[in-house]
Amino acid sequence: MKRILFVDDDTNILAGLKRTMRSMRHEWEMEFISEPKEALRVFAESHFDIVVSDMKMPGMDGADLLTEVKILAPESIRIILSGHSSPELIMKSVGPTHQYLAKPCEAETLKKTIERAYSLQSLVGSDELRSLISGLGKLPTMPATYQEIVACLQDPDSSLTDIGQIIGKDVGMTAKILQLVNSSFFGIANPVTSPDQAATFLGLDTLGTLVLGHGVFSEYKELKTSGFNIDTQWSFSSRCAAMARVIAKQQKVPKKMADEAFLAGMLQDVGKLVLVTEKTEEYAEVLERTGGQHGYAPDVEREILGATHGEVGAYLLGLWGLPDTVVEAVAFHETPSAGSSEEFDVLGIAHVASRLALDVDAADPNDPALHVDVEYLQRLGVIESWPKWQEACRDSTQDDREDAA
Question: What share of the chain is helix, strand, coil (3-state, %, to 5)?
């Protein structure tokens, strides 16, 4: 049975949580504590899968509590539930917190958040790997991009559009900014899936605090991982995202789906960043056995690491509260038949984009080097669109090269 610890210094709120969560007592073992230091003592003596904490509490605020929880048990999922946090406390909680929910929070929303966190654990079978992913507070960013955004933030003439464009070029920045902006603290009705929108919503002051004051982004340090090049990876991710947008336009899908497909294309390899920085030797072996960082590796990754890079990335993004459609697309972008989708949506678009990004000139989707899930595309009745997608992506790539020149 899963164990959950609720912490709130307001005994009335704690009593309300007990009432609203009563229906789950046969599925969850729950403990409710009003004193944060007492909660930390109980946590240290007994494992809890999830900790839900208020933010503003006397003696120890929620951010400090969850920081200690992260040290004691990095695999535990950490959720802030708060109604009156200052911007400073929100920024302080970015590192140790997976998700942020605002009070008043409907019982069903809280239940769904907790159930979703539990369901994500099935993506990654290894306890060690889940602990590693849950313990992450930040993702590496390219040195040039990090320096560029710092310079932009310090330039009085810079604009939110400029900063949004910089964020959109970097996988780590995109994932972390979207984690924050989609939190309930900001009261956004619909999920934000664009770095430009996120930058505009947060504003220069908040972005400056995140980057310069709280070190949300960590500058990438050169790793001794043979066969992996960070610049190549960022270029490939950008290409996947751009091609996903082109394919979405060809399919005339709604804007929301097109934005999510773009985001899935950008973030589909975020798991590689986790693995290459946290499991350096093991991932070097994966690269050696599969022929480089864009080799088809699901079976080898699972054999060596216990999960694929797609599953690792999806688990992290799911913990951070990104949309389910994006999480599924990241998890199964190489093996879409393993997903739940029965129509050509975000998952299918992300899969095709990832295959065309490997070689946009490969005319035959049956080419074994591409590892296209042809049966999946046939089942959805879209395989005939391959030449159209290919031509549009090729034209888009050519246009980008001409613009760059």
Answer: 60, 5, 30
Whose CA is closest to 52, among 71, 72, 80, 27? 80
Q: Give CA–CA dist 235/72, Å, rounded.
A: 37
Neighbours of 344 (CB within 10 A): 21
Query: Residue type for 7, please?
Result: V
Rounded-to-10 torsion of CA 388, 393, 395, 397: -170
Burial 102-124 (b: 16+ CB within 10 A, else e): beebeeeebbebbebbeebbebb
Q: Which ranges constitute the DSSP H helices of 21-142?
A: 36-45, 62-72, 87-92, 107-120, 127-134
CA distances from 395 to 169, 174, 220, 285, 361 (A): 21, 26, 33, 36, 11
The continuous run of DSSP H or E covering 195 comes out as helix 195-208
CA pair distance 207, 399, nearest whole angstrom: 32
8 Å CB contact between 327 and 318:
yes
pLDDT of 258-300, one tens digit each? 999 999 998 999 899 889 888 989 998 999 898 877 878 899 9
100: which DSSP letter? E
The DSSP element (H or E) to which 208 belongs, if any, is: helix 195-208
Please indicate whether residue 120 or residue 92 has the higher confidence score (pLDDT). 120
Cβ neighbors of 16 (< 8 A, separation 6 or more) are none
Does the pLDDT value for residue 405 go beyond 50? no
Domains and CATH numbers, the chain: 2-123 (3.40.50.2300), 143-219 (no CATH), 230-404 (1.10.3210.10)
Q: What CA–CA distance (Å, rounded) separates 354 from 334? A: 8
Contacts of 229 (CB under 8 A, 6+ apart): 293
Q: Of how many residues is the chain composed? A: 405
Instruction: Give the span between the Cα atoms of 333 and 331, in whole angstroms.
Output: 6
| Mean predicted confidence (pLDDT) in 102-121 | 87
Would you put residue 215 in left (φ > 0), alpha (ψ -120 to 50) or beta? left
Q: What is the pTM of this model?
A: 0.82
Residue 170 has pLDDT above 70, yes or no: yes
The CA distance from 210 to 216, in Å, is 6
DSSP state of 184: G
